[in-house]
Amino acid sequence: MVNTRDKGYCSENDWLESFTVIRRLINNGFHRELVSHVQCAAAVPEGSQVLLLEKLPQGVYVDPYQLTSAQEHSDTQVLLASEIDLEAPAYLSSGFSALVYASLDPQCSGCFTTTLPVHARYHRPAGSGEAEQRVSIESPRLLVRAEESTLPLACPQNKVTEAPCTAQNHSLCVWLEIHYQQELEAVSLQIPVGDQRQVLAVCTGTLSVTLLCCCMILGAVWKHGHFQL
User: Fold this and answer.
1) Which residues span the membrane (predicted)?
2) Is the CB of residue 5 less than 8 Å from the CB of residue 154?
3) Mind listing the pLDDT tens digit for each residue in 80-98?
């Protein structure tokens, strides 16, 4: 019987300490894609799975309807931990968690990728004249799952946790949380915001244009309309 607390046994699983995560946001504007590239420098046991536990801030949201459609044509699977209000602005929203199951990258040995569509929420107008608001997305937790015989579950440096086996199978499976190297501490996006100092001018202009249009419509109706008494 193998003693899983033996240092020699634990050192045989150095591949668990060889993970690197590279993340970037692609596209512009309010609608982005958060792409994560997970790479293991050592050989990964066959059948291994990778799961990213994302904790997303209140300044962004994920559209569950878009995910349902996208997952039909993509290997990346996402399980949301709570309901998402698509219409709420940032100051009336709260952060949420998403479980993102990575897919194998066929062009890279020991590599996994995820693509998560994220959308920026509307923010309060800034009173200091700032034109943009920075929203940072913190680093995810990295979980790995494989055959239990290949995972050193009892080694002291490893943290064992439970999470749904897949996005479709919500039964709990045993996962190992991995410490990894990351190219950047966090990724962020700049979101345009209004200027609080221009509220009076904007409201006055909007009201003036609205009244002018109403007067023009009433004038056209009065001039060209046919009225019967």
Assistant:
1) 199-222
2) yes
3) 988 899 999 888 999 999 9
